[in-house]
Every structure is written in C-alpha cells, then in structure tokens.
Amino acid sequence: MTLNDLLNEKIYVQIQYIDTDKSTILHENKFNGRVLKVDPQGGITIQPEEDNSTVTVIPPSTEACWRDENNMLHVNWLVYRLQEVRTEGEHEWWDWQPKRL
Fold it and tell me: For residues 30 and 46, is the Cβ–Cβ distance under 8 A?
C-alpha cells in the first residue's frame, strides 16, 4: 500500500496517547473519516465524518494502515509521551508508533 492508495478512501482512525510509563492511556481518539490529502512530508490529512470544520493530520506512513475482511481501511497509532515534566511554553515531545495488530 502506498500513500497515494489512501487518497479519497474512507478510513477508521484510532489514536491512543500513552503516558511516559508506556501503559497508561491518557486519551483515545476514534473516528471515521475520508482521506483528503497525502503528502510525504506533511502527512495524511483526514476529514472526520462527525465534524466538517476540522481535519486531523497523522504521520505520512502506511505502516499503521490495514484493511479488514470487508476491505475497510483502518489506521492505528500509539503515541507515546516522551517527557515527564514540561515547562509552560515549552514544546511537548511525542513518539508516534504504528500499532501492530
């Protein structure tokens, strides 16, 4: 599967944000949407079905993408928080890893 194969596809997105202990889920984002744009540097832009006023951009990788038995496209990311403490105004670092099924 290539990035261009994703363009205009309906997709189910699951993103889990995990704390520095690598087990506590801080937040989970699940939604259906459509892939609007793919860019090798800028990422994959997805328009959620529930909210036409916003888009979600995920890393430009197909490693986290797969199709189920009904040919529905899925993307699953685990996003790990990399720092315990952050000073106000300082950038917070996260590590995006494809979730292997």
Answer: no
